[in-house]
Amino acid sequence: MNPMPERMSDHWWWLPGMRPGRRMLLWHILPDGQPEVFDLVRRYQEKLAGVDGLDLVPAEWLHMTTQIVGFEDEMSGEQVEALTAGVAGRLAALEPIEVEVGRLWVHSEGVALGVRPGRGLDPVRQAMRQAAAETVGVHPLDGEPGWTPHISVAYSNADGPAAPVIDALDLRPEPVPLRVAAAYLVAQVRDGHLYRWERLAEVASGG
Q: Which top-level group of life is the source organism from (predicted)?
């Protein structure tokens, strides 16, 4: 994780190609059925509730973005089916992975909770990248293979000093377990200061 920033910046800028209503396909890891994760996020959000310039992520939209696939209108249904099958085959060969979530990460565009070990979920990410490369191609927005797995707690919606955010998080709860036994292909849109999505497929790990 990077050092604490001195300033916050507005997270809500548009990535190339993104626009209101345009759906992007991504693979997410979701904390479904793991109340300890939701409780941990809630505790952090309670500390941040009085800090200006932040959009807290609603519980129903908590997620870990794992792989950007691309824009839905740039790929065929057959390609998406092949992608899903490719990820399914690779994840079936992996046992569910257990990590800890809760390592605080304050970055210039928000507050997130990272995982330990930091590279513990790389096999899941690698399965997705390999399947994408063979079916729809690795999208330019996905960029580098390097990945920092995290669950965002809040996004910054303004430029300003980071000190109020950091000071609000002076006491930090202990991390909690996160069991990753499935991944979800979603069609996501940006709705104001919120990411929301439709679940298209759930792919389970083996075991």
A: Bacteria
Q: Is residue 2 part of a domain?
A: no
Q: Note the pLDDT tens digit of each residue in 15-69.
A: 899 999 999 999 999 999 999 999 999 999 999 999 999 999 999 999 999 999 9
Residue 16 belongs to a domain: yes
Strands laid side by side in the 150-156 sheet: 54-56, 150-156, 110-116, 97-107, 176-180
Of 8, 7, 6, 1, the residue nearest 109 (C-alpha): 8
Residue 80 resides in a domain? yes
Q: What is the CATH number of the domain that holds 164?
A: 3.90.1140.10
> By C-alpha distance, which of 54, 45, 73 is closest to 9?
54
Q: Please state the domain count of the chain.
A: 1
Query: Using an 8 Å Cβ cutoff, are 179 and 96 in contact?
Result: yes
Buried b (16+ CB within 10 A) or exposed e, 71-110: bbeebeeebbebbbebbbebbeebeebebbbbbbbbbbbb
**Alpha-carbon torsion angle 91, 74, 66, 163, nearest 10:** 180
Relative to beta strand 195-204, strand 182-190 is antiparallel
CA distance 105 to 1: 7
CB 128 within 8 A of CB 157: no
Q: Is residue 1 part of a domain?
A: no
Its domain, for residue 159, covers 7-204
The pLDDT of residue 171 is 83
